[in-house]
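Human: Not sure, check this?
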Amino acid sequence: MTPDPLLPELTAHAERMAHSRTPTCPCGATHTLLHRPDATVVRHADTVAKAHPPGTDPADLALRLTAAAQHPDVFLRPLSPTPVALRGRLVTFWPYGTPVDPDDPDAAPWESAATLLARLHRTPVRGPLPTMRGPAKAARALARLRAIGDTPPAAVPVLRAWATLPAWARAEAPMPDTSTALCHGDLHLGQLVRLPDGPWRLIDVDDLGVGVPAWDLARPAAWFACGLLPAEEWARFFDAYRAAGGPAVPADADPWAVLDVPARALTVQTAARMITKAVVERRLLDEVEQSVVDACERMVTLPPRERHEFGK
């Protein structure tokens, strides 16, 4: 296999940035935290370098970095406001933060995630910002599913469920006129880190922008609706968001009036990714993956807002 030239060069950039921050850098091993076609992340000491997806717009990324730097009470602050070009990729630099421990679900910081989201959604937008890319990411997941040669049987209900969504949720039309909030665009617990003895902060600005704030609640809402997130954990997240004055949902009315479409879209996106991965790995869907596909099948026959049924 041909070595990937990006990794050693990205590592060298991370080391240089770490040394510029700390001349007495302990210089331990540099670790690859993530390496896939759309993102590569390496760590040297307390510095992280991230190579963003190919084709990332430099002007849009610069605006997103500026927004993150302006809101250090929500986002981890980037070390530099200017991306570096490396082999056709844009690279940004960040302090290293400890991520959520996936092996300790009882310690999952649902309340912190919800409070950060509410704070972000209440923040006035300063200057120009791109559109939040959540729907565009969902559309790409469906495009990759369609690109599979012979359509797998499991993909049929997923494609049908996708067709029932409004055009804006499929990135085929502008977002509603009410979409004026600052949104993360890809919220899940893997997007939280914290510095030593510090509070939790959001990371990953690739999808940050102006949009429909309910989209940021959509992944946990979808997991809850599909039966993958216990009701207690959903309640912790949702109640904390409301308590923090989150504007995505009404304060005293049915939240599913606004959560239903984003939750359905994230369910379809998740199913599409799962099927594509299973096809690439030449295996059958596992139990969890099949349950998400089954949820898509039920969504086709259920009118909007009947959230309590499409996961059963």
Notes: Strands lie at 31-36, 39-44, 47-51, 84-86, 89-95, 98-99, 181-183, 192-194, 200-202, 209-211. Residues 6-95 form a domain with the Phosphorylase Kinase; domain 1 fold (CATH 3.30.200). Confidence is low (pLDDT under 50) at residues 306-312. The longest helix spans residues 256-280.
